[in-house]
Amino acid sequence: MGPKQWRWAALALVSLIIAGVISLTIGQRDSLSWPEVALREALAPLQSGVSRAYRIFSDGLSFVVNLGNLARENEELRKEVEQLRAERMALLEAQRENEGLRQMLQLVRDTRTKVVVAEVIARAPNAWFNTLTIGKGAVHGLKKGMAVVTPEGVVGHIRSVTNRTAEVLLILDQRSALGARIHRTGEVVLVEGLGGAGEGRALVKPLSREIDIRPGDLIVTSGLSEIYPKGLTVGVVEEIFEGNYGLSSYGVLKPVVDFGRLEWVAVLSSRSEWQ
Question: Which of 57, 77, 192, 193 could lock onto 173 through a cystine, CB 3.0 to 4.6 A?
């Protein structure tokens, strides 16, 4: 028998064995045949390994997918939080600005003079307590020398005007001086600015040694100038210092206006218009 015949004989034998296994395992049976047992035992480790590898791969894939989803959700939540924070800040800013405008409107109603409300549009960093620029000018009826105030008190007066802007000289500027009175006694004093070196303060100078000035005294405009009506609040005396060489004592005044946060001001008509 040649090699080719042997191959055909082996193939026939394998076919008979497979046919026998099929005939033995066909149908429903309560027990397994020995070929089935042998085949199952042989394939069990391979099946277990494949199943374990599939679970690991599936779990890893799920983890990566979930991680990506969490990252996207966190980014979306972060954007929502930022948007809500920005909206809250905008609402608070609008509320604060509305409150300032409401106070300005009340000032317009209360005063007997013509009032122009203007927004502060510019301030020089090196002259924060000296001047500021407002967004109203000659076309709005503003003139040099008009008083500038807030509902709290005196700010300063207009120093120069263009068609649509005006420069305001603050009462804190060293070039500023205004006549005032001690509210408690009615005695006349002079309020002079200290500029940036004064850190938002001004001097109160009595016009004679007999004038009684004390810490806590409220200082108001005297009404004796061409700029400010009588009775506008200027500030409160914080400290008193004795002058050298027998000179009169003087006080340090804290303005009632917060010059560091000015956003809106009111310009009063000139004396010829409100007398």
Answer: 193
DSSP letter string, 94-140: HHHHHHHHHHHHHHHHH-SS-EEEEEEEE--GGGTTTEEEES--GGG
User: Which tens digit of pLDDT belongs to each residue from 94-113?
Assistant: 555 555 556 556 655 556 66
Contact 262, 120 (CB under 8 A): yes
Q: Is the pTM of this model over 0.85?
A: no
Confirm whether 55 is domain-assigned: no
Taking a C-beta distance cutoff of 8 angstroms, is the pair 183, 196 a contact? no
249, with CB counted inside 10 A (0-12, 13-18, 19+), is middle
Residue 132, domain CATH: 2.40.10.340
**Residue 274 has what pLDDT?**
44
Number of domains in the chain: 1
What is the extent of the structural domain holding 262? 115-274
150-179 b/e (C-beta count within 10 Å ≥ 16 → b): bbebbbbbbbebeeebbbbbbbbbeebbbb
In a domain, 44, yes or no: no
Instruction: Report the phi/psi class of residue 182: left, alpha or beta, with left for phi > 0 and alpha for psi in -120 to 50.
Output: beta
